[in-house]
Amino acid sequence: MGPPPFQAFVRSLRPQSPLREAITSAYRRPEPQCLPPLIEAATLPAETMTRATTLARRLVERLRAKGHGGGVEGLIHEYALSSQEGVALMCLAEALLRIPDDETRDALIRDKIGGGDWEAHLGHSRSLFVNAATWGLLLTGKLTSTHSERGLSAALTRLVAKGGEPLIRHGVNLAMRLMGEQFVSGQTIEEALENGRPVIEAAAASAELKAFIRTLTERAERLKKERVDPSVDNMLKITGEGRKAALDMRLVRPDIDPPQDAKIDRAVSRILKIWNDTRRESSTQLVFSDLSTPDPERFNVYDDIRSKLVAAGIPPREIAFIHDSESDTAKKLLFDGVNAGRVRILLGSTEKMGAGTNVQRRLMALHHLDAPWRPDRQ
After folding, report:
1. Topology annotation, domain 263-377
2. Per-residue confidence band for 177, with pLDDT thresholds at 50, 70 and 90
């Protein structure tokens, strides 16, 4: 009788490691045998579960205590994803951003809005935006459903039969895009990345700045070739003066005339535009600068920006410096004012407006006048 089949092959196999043996033994194992040990391994200790539950409850209670904002936030709260209408709106908001032709848009509007119970949401919210949107959805739902719908006059039905979906498509598109853009940054990955990038405002270097940079280069070369007393000049001093000059030449040469179309002027124009565009919502802005501090005795970018914004029409009470609020109580009052929209422009350094600066409720924009740079934290 000959040897068993594949005997030579079996002898050539190397012994398996413990891990490989475990993998081999688990191959095609029945599910009832696999799941219990996995469930046990994934179960957190009771103490950890209690801490996680307590933290989650505290976070939710704090969010609920803040109340619901107006505009799109209120609309999204009213039409939660737990309701048929909320699911329809979310699907429609996301889908309308991607549908290229009007015919398909009209079909989707009829499908998602026509069957919603929009009347049930009327009057639930104190937000004028939400109630107006609800009336629009109620009306649109009736316009896009069957012509035998009760409560609409025959004349209105005939109007919709003629103008129908093309007539309401523009309004629905606008409303749904407003909601969809809260969740979808762009139609493609490239567009989403572009929309999420910061805007860099570049200002041309003045003749004075170029001349000053040349002197910095000469000083740096001298340090390489000669023994210069560090108390007289050093690379850190040269670098610091270069950064200040790039922000505003008056930080190193207070006696020169104000530069034209400088970086500060560009920043003021952008801050002013956002302030005007978001006046109805009382949106807020943070302005960061580490190379200057408020000082009535000498030029600084803080007072320069504030004076230019006030001259442009912004009330002084809506502009604040973080440096003026030294105590925790004063900072809390300031942060409450920003979150309430009473203070709409807050200026400070990255260190003073770092961790603990909770002013994001109405925040619309961050402006960094100079890139933070701390050699001791590299």
Report:
1. Rossmann fold (3.40.50)
2. low
